[in-house]
User: What shape does this take?
Amino acid sequence: MNIRNSRSHYLFYIIWISCNVACKKEAVVSTQSTQSAASPQSATSPEGISAVIPKEKICDDSQFTDPSGNIIQGTAHCQIETTCVSEGQSNCLLPSSMVAVPSSGLAEKIAAGNSVGGIAGSANARPLDCSLDGQIGCVTTTSFPGVDISLLLPGNLKKDITIAGVTGSYPSSITPLATGDVFVDLETASFDAKIASSASFGWFDRNGNRYVATGDADLAVGNIKKNIEIFGTTGGFGAVCSSDGQTSCLTDTQYKSVDTHAIDGWDIRSGKAAGGIAGEMTFFKNMANVTLFNRQGLTGSDSGIDIYDSIDDFNANGSFPTEHFTSWPQAPGNTWDRESTSDDGDGSGVALNGICDGTEDCIYKDKLTGLWWSNTDRTHRDWESAITVCDSLNYGGFDDWRLPTIKELMQAHIDGIWSLRTQLGLSIEDYWSSTTQAAGTTFAWYHEFSIGNVYRNVKTDSSSFFAICVRGA
Assistant: This one.
């Protein structure tokens, strides 16, 4: 490039040699007087050119004079006119969208497999983004963030859910749900048994709420229709009854229902049954006392006790006889009940001890006939007076007393009322009945409990007759 100095009229030849175009920056300065502006640009050294500079190193817009006086035109292209358009391009001007970078040390800053400015990278490549659960050596993302593995315990994760390679066990037998109670769980293996029992059990719903309930023992074979299954129990109800006392069956004209609360064994003949209740009603025979009398070696006699050894209940004014033949009904005693209402402990008595003590009103029930018998009146009376005393009696909390019939007196004797002679204050004397003699209506029948004697007497006689009162059927 030719530059003219307007002050000194010296022409400075400045030669730029750019590294980008393989030129060096050098200068040939001439002190030659400046030529006219119109003359060609040239320069001559005052001492002459001491060294030849190749024209290839002189910009193409400059000239110089070689030692021979020849004007030489430079051929080096010193002006940069091309704009950079691609990465790694040289000898071009950088636009605003591109920047210059130093080439020194750049390779180790670029990931291997990539290049910048034509310089291949040698740095380790960037790991791939994480894309699998539990993956390591990858770059975390919003979809696969990092997690503290020390917090991922199986008991903290939902059962069968895997996070970062850890599979959850909650809830399970290893990490069960907290129940907060002591009840066993309702499970498949024992479901039917628990439902059909009176035991309590618990369970959870899908939201984790705990529930507790109790089974129903009424889920039984006899409560479910025949051949119908409910929670593993197959019903048997509905079969026709085929035997006495059978339950959970259908009654018919032969096998009907029985109200077992209304009857007991004393309402049923011994050896029979009704509604599964065995009969106890037995009519007792006379007992024996072989010490007092024992018929031996005669017709019909037996080496042991036989029916021909029986005696009357009086037993020579002894205790009630209790010896009996093997096939005879047991001795009376269990056929009589102490009435509980009057067994109240009055007068130093003991309540509900089953006997008459203290000053309690003493009442006994004959379980065979259902009649209640009172402690006897100890005053001799005529027949009408006996009727009056019983009809007006209020005893043991009852006021429906009456004079018994002759057969009721006889049946009481058969049933062993004499065994209660102390409790009921019975005497060996006679007791009026309410029964009139049909052949002579001025006479009434009387009974003697100790031996079972029955006879009649004029109703107006009060010399030796007592009254004993009964109530009931």
Remarks:
- The chain is about 5% helix and 20% strand.
- The CA atoms of residues 31 and 126 lie 64 Å apart.
- Residues 184-214 form one domain.
- The helical segments are 191-195, 383-391, 406-414, 421-424.
